[in-house]
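Can anyone check this?
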Amino acid sequence: MAYKNLAIIVGNMGKDPELRKLENDNYVTNFSVATTKSWRNSEGEKIEKTEWHNVVLWRQAAEYCCSYAKKGMSVMVEGELQTRSWEDDNGKTVYRTELVGREFNILTPRDAKAGEGAKKKGSAKAAPAQSGSEDLVFD
C-alpha cells in the first residue's frame, strides 16, 4: 500500500506512556518523542536543537507501548501526521499536530539503562483488516 501521508520519527521518549481505556473499549496512549539535531557554528561551538513530537497509539500498539516502553528509551514511530483543533476555555482555537502511529518499535536494547523497566525489544504495527478497520500484528 502506498502512503501519501507518511512520517517516521526516531528519538527518545519524553515520559512514561500511560494507557487509557475509552468507553468503546479501545485503548489509547499519548506521549512525546524528542529528536535532537546538533551542529557546529562558525566558532566551532557545538549547538543542539531539540524538537518535541506528539504521538498517539491505539489499541494493541498502545497496550504494547505502555507495557514495555519507558521514559528515555529510543523508539521509532511510523504513521501519519494529523492536525486537530478545539476551542480552549477562552474561546481561542488551539491546534495540535500529532503523529498517529501505524508502527511502533523499541530500539533500546533490553539491558540498556534507559527505561530500566523494559522487558523486551520489539514492535507492534497496524495491518488493514478485511473489514477496513485496523488490527495489530506483532513481530
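Reply from J.R.: I decoded it. Residues 114-120, 127-139 have pLDDT under 50 and may be disordered.
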